[in-house]
Design brief:
The protein is built from 14 helices and eight strands. The chain is α/β, with parallel strands linked by helices and 303 residues long. Strands 1, 2, 3, 4, 5, 6, 7 and 8 form an eight-stranded mixed beta sheet that branches. β1, α2 and β2 (61-65) form a beta-alpha-beta unit. The longest helix has 15 residues, at 222-236. The two termini are 31 Å apart. The protein binds S-adenosylmethionine.
Amino acid sequence: MSINEHPPQDEPKARLHVPVLLDTCIDVMQPKQAESYLDLTAGYGGHAAAFLAKTNAYSNAVLVDRDQMAINELAVFEQKGATLLHTDFVSAAQALREQGRQFDLIFVDLGVSSPQLDRAERGFSFSMDGPLDMRMDQRLEKNAATLVNTAREAELVRIITMYGEERTSVAKRIAKAIIAQRPFSSTKELSDCVLGTHRGSWQRTHPATRTFQALRIAVNDELGQLETLLRCIPDLLTVGGRVGILSFHSLEDRLVKRFFKEHAEAGYEADLDVLTKKPIDGATHDVHNPRSRSAKLRVAVKK
Ligand SMILES: C[S@@+](CC[C@H](N)C(=O)[O-])C[C@H]1O[C@@H](n2cnc3c(N)ncnc32)[C@H](O)[C@@H]1O
């Protein structure tokens, strides 16, 4: 059955964000009646609705998101007894760990949601003009404009090469142009600037794609958040509890893969068994959802 044909009843405005690899997540993670559920990137509740339809244990569910817009859409779950936490997932995980909470199911669907990408005013997209923002949590002090308008050239080169996986020579050219043309206040100004540094023609991938990905990762400290979160996960799982993590680019997947490997190969002290020896990829298993193209799902169980 495809989720697009039968969206769960309490999925808030399901079409805002089509959940990735939904049926596969449920098949592999096997949620059962009365199990507790922690969704650390609840977004528009597509995955949460499907998991909670199986557990039917709303009062044992905690849904986290750092985006106010997502939290507003998740209110329907709160009305049924779930706890909503409007914070970043590291703060949420650390607070839950301090309270001694453990969960049978933990789900993490990394990155941005469709509404974050598709709304010009959020400033994530180079294809729509909007303020140069890119904050998932609008309460953060620094946005993308602050970063590009104040960072030193070497810092911009580091961000664009590390997080955008852009070649160093290209990143240097882009950073130089940014320094020469700043200040920037809109996404279009920045994407035009990057486009102006591009040599030759381009077809499918806009030359600003990698720079925008890099800035988004830096503004939201996405990799730092993920690394710290992963260390909290074993403590937050019950014995037999399953964690599923969906990643969307190689930088994220590398961290998840390494973490699972370390925990699965620690000899008799290993606390996780990896259920997905190879990641399940969205391009093969969720062909109708364009957001799934680069998705990779890894699942582990606590021993
Ligand atoms: C891909 S969407 C999740 C979609 C969700 N699974 C669904 O079905 O609607 C990712 C969500 O995670 C949130 N997010 C990303 N990083 C986060 C972090 N470090 N802490 C809390 N929320 C985060 C984003 O704001 C976004 O709403």
